[in-house]
Every structure is written in structure tokens, then in C-alpha cells.
Amino acid sequence: GGTPADSGSTISFYFRGWLANGRLFQERPASSGQPLSELLGQGRLIPGWDEGIRGMRVGGRRRLIVPPALGYGFTSRTSIPAGSVLVFEV
């Protein structure tokens, strides 16, 4: 229920993120206690999240499959190789 998330909404969430090969690279499970909070559509999240989270409602769940162009592109991160497809459960 509730109002759908849109650009400018503050969202609170738990998530798990995997590389396409199944390797978990980051997570914030519900068992960790406090969810993360972020502003949607303001460039604070990767573009795949800004697009993929839009329209979600409180309590919703989604699986996002994020191509490199909407993720971290062709720049390596600590645990994410350049050009990676990312899979998130939010």
C-alpha cells in the first residue's frame, strides 16, 4: 500500500546484490536491523535503481537486473568488475 515511490521520494530498503555469475557482492538484509535510506532520482543511486525502484510501494519487493550502462559502467569497483551486469533483490 501507500504512495508509489517517485523521483524525490525518500526510500528505505533492504537489499542483496549479486554479480551475474551468482557471487554476492553487497547486502543489507532485514536481519541487520535498520534499513538504508536514500533519495530516489537525485543521482545518489545507480541509474538502474532510480528507474527500477520507481513505482514501488511500501512492503514491495523487486528483482532488478541492471546492465553496465545503468550500473557502474566500465569502471571497476572494489568488489565489482568493470562491465558487470548486476542483480539486486530489493
What key phrases describe this protein's structure?
90 residues; mainly beta; two-stranded antiparallel sheet; 1 helix
Structure, described:
The chain is mainly β. 8% of the residues lie in helices and 29% in strands. The chain contains 1 helix and 6 strands. It has one helix at residues 47-53, and strands spanning 10-13, 15-19, 24-28, 36-39, 63-66, 86-89. The strands form 2 sheets. The protein has a 4-stranded antiparallel beta sheet, with helices on one face. A hairpin with a 4-residue loop joins strand 2 and strand 3 (24-28). The longest helix is centred in the middle third of the chain and has 7 residues, at 47-53. It is globular, with a radius of gyration of 13 Å.
Name the strands of the widest sheet in spatial order.
Answer: 3-2-6-5
Low-confidence stretches: none
Question: How many E-type strands?
Answer: 6
- The helix/strand order is EEEEHEE
Helix content: under 10%
Query: How would you sum up the major sheet?
Result: 4 strands, antiparallel
- Give the overall shape: globular
**Structural class assignment:** mainly beta
